[in-house]
């Protein structure tokens, strides 16, 4: 999850990977009985999904075909 967060400036897929990591952490929190942790991770997953939707696609590299 932290690797995805560190690399999310490179591509949209890393933002989505971070969101997936948050969802899995949230699920673990709820299943282990640490529901406050599960709630916080679920909120972070929602924020990450919103950022994924708003993240621009790949930029043109400025080459001769752009």
Query: What is the H/E order?
Result: HHH
State which percent range the strand residues make up.
Answer: under 5%
Number of beta-strand segments: 0
Helix vs. strand class: mainly alpha
The rounded distance between the terminal residues' Cα atoms is 34 Å
Average pLDDT over all residues:
86
Oligomer: single chain
List keywords for this structure.
elongated; 66 residues; 3 helices; mainly alpha
Question: What does the model show?
Answer:
The protein is elongated and about 45 Å long. The protein has one domain (2-54). The mean pLDDT is 86. It is built from three helices and no strands. With 66 residues, the protein is an all-alpha fold.
Could you give a quick summary of the protein structure above?
This protein is mostly helical and about 70 residues long. The chain is built from three helices and no strands.
Blueprint of the fold:
Layout: H1 2-7, H2 12-32, H3 35-54
């Amino acid at each position: 999850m932290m690797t995805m967060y560190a690399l999310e400036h490179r591509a949209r897929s890393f933002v989505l990977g971070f969101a997936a990591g948050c969802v899995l952490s949230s699920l673990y929190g709820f299943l282990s009985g640490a529901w406050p942790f599960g709630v916080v991770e679920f909120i972070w997953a929602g924020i990450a999904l919103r950022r994924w939707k708003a993240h621009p696609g790949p930029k043109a590299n400025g080459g001769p075909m752009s």
